[in-house]
Design goal:
This protein has 273 residues and is an all-alpha fold. The protein has one domain. It is built from 15 helices and no strands. It is a multi-pass membrane protein.
Length: 273
């Protein structure tokens, strides 16, 4: 029995949910352990963020939002999101696809996104897609909805990687490696040791950048390659995300994007070509 013959529809859904939940646990833990950005003096201060719309400051609406989103009360919403994610991470399929649990989770996630319209990234966006889709599957648990969801995630992964690759490919700074050196020199996403290494080895920086561009642009070929050759882009993705977690601290990226890989493996099994 091969690896692919045991990745059936339900197992693929279960693995998608587990990886996605792990990404949420990691993201929530970062906020709960390092809450300073959410505090009044932080970059995600509600005192400042609510000023973007008069409705968020004045009247009853403003008072409700202020009660819900001010620090430290916002930590309660984050903790609730983490608890639900833990239930999904360690629970059986009946818990994973519980529509009430998933709908509450999506609602809490939407509230947190509404509070912080900036500071999100591709991992957050992928997480929203993963859990909104899971909620739909939980409400309408049929073979068709599961199949559509898994194919949607597969195409979404291909689109996300390809568009990121094309965006880098048209930027001279990415093609010659200077952007990679610049990112490694930042305080938020930087790595001083790697920056120093790439500064004295510009050729290495250039080909590392080009390698990422090539892999991202051609990731959609995973749908056309025969097995087991189709595993190569997926293994490349695992290595890429682990490196980004180590170098740039993008810890939730690992799990939110790898959450799409069980869907890709399932679709490779049933694609018919």
């Amino acid at each position: 029995m091969t690896l692919f013959s045991v990745i059936n529809q339900q197992l693929a859904i279960l693995l998608v949910a587990k990886f996605a939940a792990l990404a949420i646990v990691v993201a929530c833990a970062e906020y709960l352990v390092f809450p300073h950005p959410l505090q009044n003096g932080g970059l995600m201060s509600w005192e400042v963020g609510r000023l973007r719309q008069p409705l968020m400051v004045k009247g009853a609406t403003g008072r409700v939002l202020d009660w819900l989103f001010s620090y430290p009360r916002i930590s309660g919403l984050i903790a609730l999101r983490a608890v639900i994610a833990l239930l999904i991470l360690f629970g059986p399929l009946t818990i994973v696809l519980n529509p009430w649990l998933l709908c509450v989770f999506v609602l809490v996630s939407m509230l947190l996104t509404f509070r912080n319209t900036f500071g999100t990234d591709g991992a957050d966006q992928m997480g929203d897609l993963l859990f909104v889709g899971l909620a739909v599957v939980g409400i309408v648990t049929t073979h068709l909805t599961m199949n559509v969801y898994l194919w949607f995630l597969t195409f979404q992964a291909c689109l996300a990687y390809a568009m990121a690759g094309f965006a880098k490919a048209v930027a001279p700074g990415w093609r010659d490696g200077t952007y990679l050196v610049g990112i490694c020199g930042t305080s938020t996403y930087g790595n001083a040791r790697l920056r120093d290494l790439l500064l004295v080895r510009p050729t290495l920086s250039k080909w590392l950048s080009r390698g990422v561009i090539i892999w991202e642009c051609f990731f959609p070929l995973v749908l056309l390659l025969p097995l087991p050759l189709a595993l190569v882009p997926l293994i490349g993705g695992i290595v890429f995300h682990l490196m980004m977690a180590y170098i740039m601290g993008l810890n939730d990226f690992v799990w939110s994007f790898l959450a799409t890989y069980p869907a890709v493996l399932y679709c490779l099994q049933v694609r018919g070509w």
